User: What shape does this take?
Amino acid sequence: MSSIIQLLPDHVANQIAAGEVVQRPASVVKELLENAVDAGATDIKLIIKDAGKSLVQVIDNGKGMSVTDSRLCFERHATSKIRQAEDLFSLHTKGFRGEALASIAAIAHVEMKTKQEQDELGTHIIIEGSKFVSQEPSVLPKGTSFAVKNLFFNIPARRNFLKSETVEFRHIVDEFQRVALAHPNIYFTMYHNGSEMFNLPNSNYRQRIVNVFSGKTNEKLVPIQEETEIVTIEGFVGKPEFAKKNRGEQFFFVNDRFIKSGYLHHAVMAAYEGLLPNGSQPTYFIYLNVPPNTIDINIHPTKTEIKFDDEHALYAILRSTIKHSLGQFNVAPVLDFDRDPNLDTPYQYQNKTAEYPTVQVDSTFNPFADDPSYSELAKQKPSKQFSGGSNSYKKQEVAGSNWESLYVGLKNDTSEVETFSFESEEVTASLFDEKEEEQTINRTYQIHKKYIVSPIKSGMVIMDQGRAHQRILYEQFLTNMTVQQASSQQLLFPLQMYFSNNELKLIAELKPSLENTGFVFEAFDTDSIHISGIPVNTTESEISMVLEQLLSDLQDGIPDSSFSQNDTIAKSMAKSLAVKTGTYLTEKEQENLVNNLFACKEPNVSPFQKPTFITMRVEDIDKRFAL
Assistant: This one.
């Protein structure tokens, strides 16, 4: 019997490896940018066409490669970063496995130009699907230019699984930002379809963050810094009032390498305990420097996950560092409040007794001395003096026989006294009117500020007020966007809101649909938008929450079809503006909610396919009492 196990050809093995290394154009961007950083470049250019599907090109001014290295770098497991297994625990570079270029060359058309500073001529290599087409000397500047064209040209199934250009471009921007934020000392530029997207001159960490995210990012940042034997921490965290619904601006860097760590994220959230509303996420840019022998990078193909030797100590240090910075910059309350020195008691008054003020009273003072009627009464009867303590007063006794003199001058005529007559009210036999009794039968009740109970003929309806309101708003927004006749309330002063570059582009793409819901956009700036009109029944303070929730729901990309796009926007806005659990509703509001829900086309479920109400029949209630 012949053997059935055989070695795979190199080009097939490279294509299989490419499935792990290259998942989308953003994966190519990440590998090429990291190679340029490892080459010691100080100026890196990224050129993209059609969201990376047609072209991904990285040009750097690094040290370049020799003729032999330029050919050998496309072989599997060929690397200049490590020599033995022990080197995996002392890594100071980005790439080290030696599979990236081989995998990329297996699924795309690759053109590489490289030259070292001491060489007179460089090397120009063209590869198509792991096959070397040409290699020839060429006059080139110092550094390397790596162009990847027609990605997945020989794997159409993988190409068909790529998302829209908007989604793929956003992934590319994410990878570009991660590398650029980790290396502020390198000049980065990025171009997409001939337009400059980013121009980031070399600077410090804070300036690089501001240049990448623009807007009022500088006002949001609180610096953090701590140095211990285990880790050195520096970076910035966002103020609680600038927290967002999405987790877009959250970055961890370990030894200048971007990582994802749910454990460290939990440490950050613990530091913000009590400062953030539910569902909000803080912004942070945290740079950790640890000894290379205390981490293991080689646990994930994308190298975005790291295993730490002492995670518990790192958790405690990070949490306390952030908490200390928030308190130091008066973002969080602290115990050492500033005292007012004016309220302190001077030391020379410590053993002195209190001095009481003296009160002087004139015992002979009489406020009625100038009154002639009083003087006549005083002559008729001598007065008695009474003294008590330091105060003395005179009490005038009026003789009982002369009491009538007090009322001299008053009129005794009672003819002007008016008389009033009162109409007798008709008393009815019933306590309530019949119409009022009918209204009490249909009255609604709110339970725990969450559910609304309304009686019906067969029993009663128990309605979830939040889900019911979501269904009502969802159908209203969807109808307005479909008919394109939404009402808008104009603002007296335009509302200016700041967003990052990616968020502004996303809002610009959604602008037609948002205008159909009632938004009126006055202008789009480089880092902000001006809103002069908002949907009816929406307050100005809710606009920020609505747009942040919308951007969070569209993290995975904007749907291609217009209906799906409108549906996503209507769901997001309904979720943001719907009445929340814990909100008290008046009886009139409860009735309107019940009536509007049953006027919807699909009142049974919310926009997220969850039941909005349940019914309980009288028979079901009777069965409960029959037990």
